[in-house]
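The methods section describes the discrete structure representation at length, but only in general terms. The central task, working out the structure tokens from the amino acid sequence alone, is never made concrete. Nothing conveys this as quickly as seeing an actual entry. For illustration, here is how one protein appears when written out as sequence plus structure tokens:
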Amino acid sequence: MKLKFLIDPKYVFLHTFNQDQHKEPFKGWGNFTMKIWDKHPQECYFLAGYAEWPIIKKSSLPSIANNAEKLLNTWLKNPQARNLINETEKYRDWLEKEWNKKGRETLSELEKIIKIPLPNKTISVYVTHPKLNNGMTINTEIITWGHSEDWKNYSIVYLCHEIMHILFWNIKSSVSHAIIELATDNELRIKLNRKGKYFKEGKFDIGHNKLRKIEQKLLPSWNTYLKDPKINIKQFVQKQKEISD
């Protein structure tokens, strides 16, 4: 499996634009976007995913969409937007270098944990600003990512977390998500860092709080699974899903 790290300026801009106003990639961004909202509210509501507001004002959605795209192209020329893209490009370059250095070893370790080969394919990773948390599997070909490096190998581990969502694309449940966290957020993290414990890394809690009870319940079976060469992770997920059902 290969990862291709990409930047789409419009996506980077809109991901940042649609964050809570208290979350700024850098000082001055909030004032910049507030002025945009004040001047072009209907287009901003549309770009933020609130198309019902222009509809209430009896606006034509095709007209709003056309205006919004023109405005977006204009906003991208603003110094604030150029700074946003430049900082994201620097982060992308670091992330790509980090993956190129550690990716092969990491995927090898992941395959030992899940006991099945990863698909021979290239995944596009669309990168966003690292100060605005982002991590999502869009489909079996695309991941979005941008995050501060909270602990050693953070991005490497969580890119593998998203790869696992691709592997489990047709198996979506709280149980499968909890097992992904056991495999990547915990077991893989400890193997890469050569130290650590489950569910905690320094001051940081590991994984989603809403999945913690499931993970604690699965932990004895998970530890048995890790020692059993006869069962792979998909079989383990299916077995646990049957138990939970």
